[in-house]
Write a structure and sequence with these properties.
Radius of gyration: 14 Å
Number of strands: 11
Largest sheet: 7 strands, mixed
Order of helices and strands: EEEEEEEEEEE
């Protein structure tokens, strides 16, 4: 089992920045995929960014150039640096984990990000 706990959400004005953190615990594999998804009210959950065990990353087109996903020095920490935030970035952001070769996906409870003036 893997537990994921997000932090760092909040209210920010358009053009502002936030940094989300995700702390993973439990049976963490050194070969994994971690990332962030988000879900806005009335919309389906969508991919924001993924990072592989190395440094390979992938981003949704809507956040490219504004968001950066990274791992902490400890293998169980994940970050999402969000710059130039827009009202349409408002959503609950959830941390994601999957061990390579496993069929099990794990999700955190999410942290609310609200972009509004």
């Amino acid at each position: 089992q893997v537990q994921l706990v997000e932090s760092g959400g909040g209210l920010v004005q358009p053009g502002g920045s936030l940094r989300l953190s995700c702390a993973a615990s439990g049976s963490i594999s050194s070969v994994n995929v971690m990332g962030w998804y988000r879900q806005a009210p009335g919309k389906e959950r969508e991919l924001v960014a993924l990072i592989m065990s190395g440094t390979a990353t992938t981003y949704a087109d809507s956040v490219k150039g504004r968001f950066t996903v990274s791992r902490g020095d400890a293998k169980n920490t994940l970050y999402l640096q969000m710059n130039s935030l827009k009202p349409e970035d408002t959503a609950v952001y959830c941390c994601y984990y999957r061990a390579v070769g496993s069929a099990s996906d794990y999700w955190g409870q999410g942290t609310q990000v609200t972009v509004s003036s």
